[in-house]
Amino acid sequence: MVGERLEDILAEHLDVIFCGINPGMTAATQGHHFAGRGNRFWRTLHLAGFTPQEVRPENDRTILLHHCGLTAVVERPTARADQLSSDEFIAAAADFEQKITRYAPRFVAFLGKAAYCALSGQREVMWGLQSKTFGNASVWVLPNPSGRNRAFTLDQLVSAYRQLCLAAGEHPPTDSPTYRAVSPPGL
User: Fold this and answer.
1) Does residue 25 fall inside a structural domain?
2) In this structure, is residue 77 part of a structural domain?
3) pTM for the full predicted model
4) Which of 22, 44, 162, 184 sits between 20 and 30 A of 66, alpha carbons compared?
5) What is the pLDDT of residue 65?
6) Which domain covers residue 137, as residue numbers?
7) Cβ(111)–Cβ(19) below 8 Å
8) φ, ψ for residue 5 (rounded to 5)?
């Protein structure tokens, strides 16, 4: 239901917890992460090597099989991330850090700079691995795969996510350097 909390998909000691800014309205309504028609998260994740095939949003819980989890910094669903106030990030900060500490992933990957900037107090951050940890996890900042974020092509998203995949010890497809790579035969 709209306005209700989108449930986290987490387990202890995952390789990566992907952290969205907040749930979109479609995701909240359907009860599945990254369910918006234009969202490129699942396709990017597959093409970067995290999953052997593209996961459908209604199967989002299967991400745990790939040693990854899903959460959001702010629980309130909105149509656009810019509808959140800085006060909402501040209010969510302590609980969010406790969540990351409790689940103890190797990496927490922020999807977009906005949430990490708000939580870290930094005005500017670079893409990729950060020098500071968050909740004892290494921090990686990735471009937001939202369909509204057209500053990044699918190729650029896949390249950025593949770097994290390699750092996390996953094995991206090697048969093609582009996003058109396919999963190995038999999968």
Assistant:
1) yes
2) yes
3) 0.85
4) 22
5) 96
6) 16-167
7) yes
8) -75, 135
Quickly tell me which residue has 């699918």 as its tokens.
Answer: 154
Res 147: pLDDT: 80
Between helix 113-120 and helix 86-103 the angle, nearest 10°, is 90
Question: What is the number of domains present in the chain?
Answer: 1
Give the pLDDT score at 170: 59
Task: Please report the pLDDT score of residue 5 as a whole number.
Answer: 77
Which pLDDT belongs to residue 140?
98
Among candidates 81, 75, 18, 80, which has minimal Cα distance to 51?
Answer: 18
Residue 8 · residue 71 · CB < 8 Å: yes
Q: How far apart are the first and last CA of the chain?
A: 35
pLDDT, averaged per 10 consecutive residues of the chain (187 residues), comes to 75 96 87 91 97 96 97 85 81 92 97 90 94 96 89 95 92 40 32
CA distance 151 to 133: 27
- Which token pair is 137? 């996890």
DSSP 36-81: STT--HHHHHHHHTSSSSPPPGGGGGGGGGGTEEEEESS-S-BSSG
